[in-house]
Design a protein that fits this description.
CATH class of the largest domain: Mainly Beta
Strand content: 25-35%
CATH topology of the largest domain: Beta-galactosidase, Chain A, domain 5
Number of domains: 2
CATH architecture of the largest domain: Distorted Sandwich
Distance between the termini: 44 Å
Length: 726
């Protein structure tokens, strides 16, 4: 869709603007005000704002000279100030109380005096330093919220005050972003989204067409950067955000806030329709990539405590409800958030919650595949799901692009969640946001040294080296290649992908199968590694839980421990135990959340097994102390065939345990040309999983005959249990 020319937009903004406009129109806020007392969740959201702002009415607000990193006094004061400006501006429109407008006026006049004096922040550590905060990203947050707050009270200010604020508080920040930090402002990245939103919202609030033009099309005005380029390049056609689930949560807020401002200022742009409603898809993509408790799946950099009740999603859902209409899934999330935006969309959600009965307590999770890349041709992430509600099992598989600066070296990595618990995990990121004592709240050195490294994930590591040599530039060139992905049959879902460029001369291919057997659910993992040269291959399983039993003897380190290696993340792993096994089925059972899980792995020839735990070479205790189970094989071509079995239960209150013994009894791997079959015995019955290694046409038929097994099927894979196709 082509947008109207910038000239038409600028004329509209300059000639017809009626403030407030950037966050909501006056008529909308008046309508919301009349509904506050009607709906409890809307009343509570309004009360939360009043309780945050009212103690500051009539007070002199500190606007200190910046000096602290994240978590320090000046950082937190400025952060509180921009929220105070926005919330007070909104309350002014909802109540008509002039004291709120005076509060906004007083704070912004102080910034008008401060901002022209600022240089790079004394705690800045990157190429994008802030002025008010240690990084420019936080300055962009300030610009977004203060821009909206100013717009909300602009009609109540004198012409002199408006001029002082616009030239003193806003202009230095905009000039800083688009001048000294021009490269950062034009960057296709969540930082760039916030920067464009800040400059654009201020442009709308101050009737400055030049600011809006830069926000939309970049500083050069050629459309290669700016807000529209961010929408076009950061999302796939499916709405997947390339930096991952955690960062789509953060980026959705500026995307939705600025889109909302543009829609108010110039509805003819139809910004919410851009790219076939990709912003709607992005919101649902983010929500689908959460656990049943709302926490975001930890692919790439991720803070595991962050969930969909965060402010970013509250605001985005309220805006989306108005832009795209009623959605039951969003209503479920809004009920969990227990607050709404004080907007027309938020009021509509409050009204819907008051009349909707039997609302599901869970977002409508489904098996789903999200392509990555602006054109959808840079791999994908796939989530296979079985069960529903509190009994949901989710298998996530990542074979997407690297994920820009927040990506990890984790091609063909998978995670497993079951009954709301994280069973096989990704570390996420090493960071304590806004805790000054932990490196000023920044990403810790261990984030790059461990959390992003391949060994911190559930995928093969070659020669103790991270994929792509641990270099972002190299990793960004290559995404995974999907061979097939099918989840139309709930009893047998599968995805197969490969990566030929993570290691020189080594090809990786992994097929994952989520199978529902009668009374038992399991994952079959067929990981094939091929190379013309001999290598050492490690396959970690980053498990959560307590070791219960192993089928093999091991030697534990009970008095002294050594690290598993010296670099690429291995230096952070204590080797707690190891075993040497040959020609066997190695089984390891652990307990998590009252359920038993067993990893059964075929060992042909020989393998080393390690139990490790993070914490080595970590004198500041920056890493969580978490375990992993690692299978090590050496040679040229090697297969890792494992079954992750969900079984049994344990109740500590009643002291009862059942089904603690795994059902998997044997595993064989067979090949016939381009076909692979895993032959398993589960609960005394035969399970056959057959795959076409090259995928092929969906309707193609295949005949397998090797090792005493004959099997025929149509399509890329099959699963047969006790003689019956699942």
């Amino acid at each position: 869709m082509r947008l109207p020319t910038i000239a038409l937009l600028l004329c509209s903004l300059a000639c017809t603007a009626q403030h407030p406009l950037a966050f909501a129109k006056k008529s909308e806020l008046q309508a919301v005000s009349r509904q506050i007392a009607r709906y409890p969740i809307l009343q509570n959201s309004f009360n939360d704002f009043k309780q945050s702002v009212d103690p500051y009415l009539g007070k002199d607000i500190d606007v200190p000279f910046p000096k602290d990193p994240a978590g320090g006094y000046t950082h937190e004061r400025h952060k509180s100030n921009y929220m105070l400006v926005f919330q007070a501006g909104l309350l002014y429109n909802l109540t008509g109380d002039a004291r709120y407008a005076q509060l906004v006026r007083g704070i912004l006049l102080k910034y008008a005096a401060l901002n022209p004096t600022l240089k790079n922040h004394p705690q800045a550590t990157s190429s994008s330093p802030g002025h008010i905060f240690w990084q420019a990203l936080n300055d962009a947050n300030w610009l977004v919220y203060c821009g909206m707050g100013y717009d909300l009270v602009q009609p109540a200010l004198s012409a002199a005050d408006r001029k002082t604020i616009e030239t003193g508080a806003f202009k230095p920040e905009v000039d800083f972003f688009t001048g000294q930090l021009e490269g950062w402002f034009n960057l296709i990245h969540n930082h760039g989204v916030w920067a464009c939103a800040g400059v654009g919202i201020v442009g709308i609030a101050t009737d400055n067409p030049a600011y809006v033009k830069m926000a939309l099309y970049g500083t050069k005005g050629d459309g290669r950067s700016g807000f529209l380029a961010q929408i076009d390049q950061l999302f796939s056609p499916d709405g997947y955000y390339t930096e991952g689930p955690y960062y789509v949560r953060y980026a959705l807020l500026p995307f939705y806030l600025f889109a909302n401002a543009l829609n108010n200022a110039q509805p003819g742009l139809r910004i919410f329709e851009h790219r076939n409603q990709v912003l709607r898809k992005a919101l649902h993509s983010g929500l689908q990539q959460t656990n049943t408790d709302g926490t975001f799946f930890p692919f790439n950099d991720d803070i595991k405590d962050k969930d969909f009740t965060s402010n970013e999603l509250v605001s985005a859902i309220s805006i989306a409800w108005k832009a795209y209409g009623r959605d039951t899934g969003l209503l479920t999330v809004a009920s969990k958030q227990n607050r709404v935006g004080l907007t027309e969309g938020g009021a509509a959600i409050a009204a819907a919650l008051s009349t909707t009965k039997n609302l599901s307590p869970y977002y409508p999770y489904t098996s789903i595949r999200y392509s990555d890349g602006a054109k959808g041709d840079e791999g994908a992430v796939t989530y296979l799901r079985a069960g529903k509600g509190k009994n949901l099992t989710t298998l996530g598989f990542k074979y997407a692009s690297h994920g820009l600066s927040h990506g990890h070296f984790d091609e063909l990595n998978f995670i497993l969640f079951d009954k709301g618990n994280e069973v096989l995990q990704d570390y996420g990121s090493a960071r304590f946001v806004n805790i000054e004592q932990k490196w000023g709240g920044r990403y810790l050195p261990e984030n790059n040294a461990y959390a992003t490294q391949t060994i911190a994930h559930n995928t093969v590591v070659v020669d103790e080296q991270s994929q792509f040599g641990g270099e972002e530039a190299a990793a960004s060139k290559w995404s995974g290649e999907e061979v097939f992905c099918r989840f139309d049959n709930p009893a047998a879902q599968a995805v197969l992908a490969r990566q030929k460029n993570a290691y020189k001369g080594v090809e990786l291919a992994r097929g994952l199968y989520l199978l529902q057997l009668p009374g038992r659910r399991l994952v079959v993992d067929i990981f094939h590694v091929q190379s013309g040269d001999a290598h050492q291959y490690d396959l970690p399983f980053q498990y959560n839980g307590q070791l219960i039993h192993t089928s093999f003897p091991y030697k534990a380190s009970t008095t002294t421990m050594q690290t598993l290696g010296r670099k690429n993340g291995y230096q952070f792993l204590w080797k707690e135990a190891e075993a040497h096994v040959r020609d066997t089925l190695a089984q390891f059972t652990f307990l998590n959340g009252g359920t038993y899980y067993t990893i059964s792995s075929l060992v042909e020839d020989s393998a080393q097994l390690f139990f490790t735990r993070t914490g080595a070479n970590d004198p500041n205790f920056n890493l969580r102390r978490e375990p992993s189970y690692i299978i090590r094989k050496s040679g040229r071509n090697r297969d890792f065939i494992s079954v992750v079995e969900i079984h049994g239960s344990y109740n500590a209150v009643t002291e009862s345990s059942s089904g603690a013994v795994p059902g998997v009894q044997s595993i064989r791997l067979l090949r016939d040309g381009g076909l692979t079959v895993a032959q398993l015995r589960v609960d005394g019955k035969e399970l056959l999983v057959g795959q076409c290694d090259e995928g092929g046409m969906p309707a193609a038929t295949h005949s397998f005959n090797a090792g005493g097994v004959s099997l025929s099927w149509s399509g890329p894979f099959t699963a047969v249990y006790d003689g019956k196709h699942l």
